[in-house]
Every structure is written in C-alpha cells, then in structure tokens.
Amino acid sequence: MSEQIPVKSTNKIPLLFEDEWVIAVNKPAGLPSQGTRDPRRSHLHAEVEKQIGKKVWLHHRLDKDTTGVILFSKSDKANFSLTEQFREHQVQKTYLALAKPGLIDTPISQEKAVELHMAPVKGERGIERMVVVKKGGWHSQTLFKKLAEGPESILMEARPRTGRTHQIRVHLAHLRVPILGDFLYGGKSPLVPRLMLHAWKLELKHPISQQPLLIEAPLARDFLTLVERWDFQKNIPKNFHDI
Asked: How far apart are the C-alpha atoms of 132 and 150, rounded to whole Å?
C-alpha cells in the first residue's frame, strides 16, 4: 500500500490528498455532502469546488454529521475509473464509531460480520430511515471489530462491504449498540454533541497510475476528546489529531 501524501492546508475544508487527478478532504460535521432541496444551504461538493476553483465529481457520500474522508475526481478520465471502482465495490472504507455500551458476543479485535436486508420507510415528521426486513429490501453487509470498551461507550471499527444508506448505523443498532448521538436509531445521548461516526480510511487504486492509494482522516476534536476521556486512544494510531 502506498504511503499517504499529506497536504497542509489552512482552508476551511482540510485537504488530505491532492494531485492533478483527485482530491480527498476531511469532511467536517454538520455539512451535507451534496446539494439539498434548499439551494441556499451550503454543502461539501460546492465548498470544495469553490476552494480549489475547479469542477470536481463526487463518488460517495457521508451523512451530514459524519466526519472523515471523501474523495472527488478532477477530470473525466479519473471520474470514469473511480466510478467503476466504487460500483464494483473495489474501494475499501473503514470507519470508527463510538457506540452505546452493550453486550456484543465478540472479544476485543475479533471480527464479526453483520448481514441483513434493509428497506426505507418514512418515520416521524417525514424523516426517512432504514429498517431491517426479512424479505425483499437491499442486501447489506458490514464487518465489525470491537477495539475498546468502557462503562459509557464502545469503540468500534466498521468495514462496510456494501454501500447502503445508514448501513453502519442500522447494523450497530441491530446489535443493540447504536452509535452515540444517533437519534434515528436509538443512540440519543446527552454525552455527545452529534452522531459519533468517522470515515477513517479509504483504500483504492489511483484512477490513473493504478497504484494502491491509502488516505486517512484524523479524528475531529469532539470525537478525539471522547476517545481520550474514555482512555481509548491506545487503540488507535498515536498520530491522530483534530482537524
């Protein structure tokens, strides 16, 4: 796996990697990945284009309050290659989540697969959410590892094998350890300011050179503060810092 090339930035959206073909940024919480029904509302796609002064193509999305790696292409050629990689599930995504404490029948660092079928429904106030269904729906699969646990939270690593809406959130709620701050799936908590989910790593082939590319996103300050408070920092790389 090739080394990540760090990019120093003092701009609003922190850059993680950039060359003439692609750009990866560390998405802050509270910012939608793309345009919403309200054209006046700011979103990451527009902010990145404004920041670099160039049209870019978005290939995947994060929920509004999820932080971490998002990758854009900067040319038609790179766009085609990345579209194929994401469509064929050749891009490996790794997330970190702080979940509510609960009983998970796996020891620390042992992998556990969750495989379910999910379907969208309209919830309270018209908010769309995903539910687990026995028949029909969309197939979804995530590999989880419990990295650390304490009386107030569990630190989980998640590697989704499919890319369904709210997939990691629904799967952890199904395990009865919803993500802290997740009001849709049972994780509402006074302990946290938002949904505690972070897109940590993205592993793929560079769209032009085809060389392995690893991009990592540092934790946001609010997430890192909780990791340190609950003494979980020894379970993630020591060079983690806030955005």
From this structure: 28
- Helix count and strand count (H, E) for the chain: 4, 11
Whether 154 and 99 have beta carbons less than 8 Å apart is answered as yes
By three-state DSSP, how is residue 87 classified?
Answer: helix
What is the set of domains in the chain, with CATH numbers?
Answer: 15-235 (3.30.2350.10)
- Among candidate residues 191, 216, 215, 226, the one with its CA nearest the CA of residue 97: 226
Return the bridge partners of 99, or none: 154, 179
Tally the C-alpha atoms within 13 A of residue 210's C-alpha that lie toward its C-beta.
1
8-53 residue pLDDT tens:
444 489 999 999 999 999 999 999 998 767 677 789 999 999 999 9
**18, 215 contact by CB (below 8 A):** no
Strand runs (DSSP E) across the chain, as ranges? 15-18, 22-27, 57-58, 67-73, 92-99, 111-122, 128-133, 138-149, 154-160, 197-205, 212-216
pTM to 2 decimals? Answer: 0.90
**Is residue 63 annotated as a catalytic residue, yes or no?**
yes
Catalytic position from the list 63, 105, 222, 242? 63
Tokens of 159: 């590697």
